[in-house]
Amino acid sequence: xxxxxxxxxxxxxxxxxxxxxxxxxxxxxxxxxxxxxxxxxxxxxxxxxxxxxxxxxxxxxxxxxxxxxxxxxxxxxxxxxxxxxxxxxxxxxxxxxxxxxxxxxxxxxxxxxxxxxxxxxxxxxxxxxxxxxxxxxxxxxxxxxxxxxxxxxxxxxxxxxxxxxxxxxxxxxxxxxxxxxxxxxxxxxxxxxxxxxxxxxxxxxxxxxxxxxxxxxxxxxxxxxx
Length: 226
Description:
The chain is mainly β.
């Protein structure tokens, strides 16, 4: 860990973990909440899984048309970032209870992107190495680019604000939860807490956050910091 990372992290409290449950798949990456239910993606299996969190029971499973990364709930469907054999990234639509709609596919800007968030109107895509959040229209056109000071490894929108899992670099072990309010002309960013593992994805079930501890094949719920 860099000295600067360690120094800055001294002022942050660590997230309050509430529960850990086993992942239904190896190396979980994508995660989204649909109320109390979770959706998990793994490109180790190229599948997505619907999970009843309280029971740890899989109620739905589907093969993705490529390697699934981040995903988000958009009503009765999911939007999923999919990588093809060349690792070009697309946003695909999965209709819950049915399957992926193969004709409904939008190329990510610059063919790259990892995680998704949805505010009920617009879709947002993160690009880790570019350190930006992109607001997209239905055709994938970029409407707005929001810079972020760190690399994003998970995001969700809660009450109009972005909550982000971030890290300094791919080599860093320093993970932090940030809140970004982009509703103003100059976005406001606040560091909220330290995360003690390499977290991937972020979801909100209405009362608590969820993320993946990919290295341990577990899914972690934690409290929203004050």
